[in-house]
Amino acid sequence: MVANRVASISSGRLHVVAYLLAAALVVAFLPPASPRPAAVAVTSEIEPNSSFSAANVIQLGTTYSGSSSGASRRDNDYFAVDVPSAGRATLNLKFPANSGKGFAYYVYVYGAAREPLYNFDVLASASSGAWLAAQATFLPKGRAYIRIVGYSNLLTWGKTYTLNVGYTPANVETEPNDTVATANVIKLGTTYSGSSLDMSGNDEDFFAVDVPSAGRATVNLKFPANLGTGDAYYLYVYGAAGEPLYNFNVPAAGGSGAWLAAKSTILPKGRAYIRIVGYSSLSTWGKKYTLNVSVPVLALKATPVPTISGAAKVASVLTATAGTWAPARVALKYQWVRNGKAISGATGATYKLVAADAGSKVAVTVTGSKTGYKTVVKTSVAKSVPLQALTATPVPTISGTAKVASVLTAKAGTWAPAPVTLKYQWLRNGKAITGAAKSTYKLLAADAGKKITVTVAGSKAGYRAITKTSVARTIAK
Fold this sequence. Notes:
The chain is mainly β and about 475 residues long. It is built from three helices and 34 strands. Strand 32 and strand 33 form a beta hairpin.
């Protein structure tokens, strides 16, 4: 029985070995396998993505596909996008047409701290994406979240949608800015974009501006024309302490900005606040507006010409004295110039002269700027920086036999500071010999009985050129 078992095992092993040998032969004669296709970048949502922490991170300008589906009656798809700087975002959500009537999706936009910024009830008729893309959606720098909500009772349930988030950098409002404390600080004379659009149906946008001196301000609020009749926005102006100064019911016919700009708005010196209020019942809801607050540009009272002190020679330090600009405080910027052209990196009140300055004129420009005042540029009298002197300029020597057909050799010696470019010229009785401009010269019959010398001209950028002449050699007749 044991013998039968051993025989059976041995026989089984022989079968296994035979099988493996056959398999190896088959593999050996098989054609080489085709290379595996490269991985394709994923541009579709990855479930689960039903929360902020599970949001799919997407790239600006890239189209992603997704769908509202799942075991429950509601599906939340979260996407995260990183905005490089404040600007306008374009949300392009497309889905199949003929998705019935009513709503297709509910879209929410949140900031980096997950604070609600916007919400949109997207109708089934808006399948091309144009309606949502046209909504004036502005985002601050940083991460933003987009949440797409679908329900099983909507005809878009189970259908594929595509999402593409576009972005254009600009001076824009950054939500939330619905209080004095969160007001967007804007610069006089600069145009900013904004919109009345949020989750509550009424939106308050606060802007803060610093007025350099009491006087009239021009508040220019522009928005699309042909928006019907009635009111477009309600605009309020407050002082530094939040005290009300003005309020205007801006008509829909005032989209050019001229109506509001013509109003006499006198502001005290200091901070002022502009509050723009819009409602979902108004035709401007979701539309872009632009705001520009300006005041007459004043002239600085004192704009002295800067002066330069210090020795005008290479390696010395020059110091610019800007003088006293008024009214204080005036921001001053320096720029050193060489022969009228800006010197790269030379933007401090002091400048150390370099070799490139030798033989040129160096000056400094001072630019004075102050909010509400015209910027002024003043340039100093230029200082002439002399060329430097070479520290070693030896007299050349001539070696070789002074007879016709012999070769003379000029030895220039060591010029400093190295490197110095050297040029040779041989002379016959003090006149240059045509073509004799090397360190060696073969004497000709015309040289017999003449005096032969060589001149060496040394040159280096930023240094005075020097020419040295050897002692003459008289050539035998």
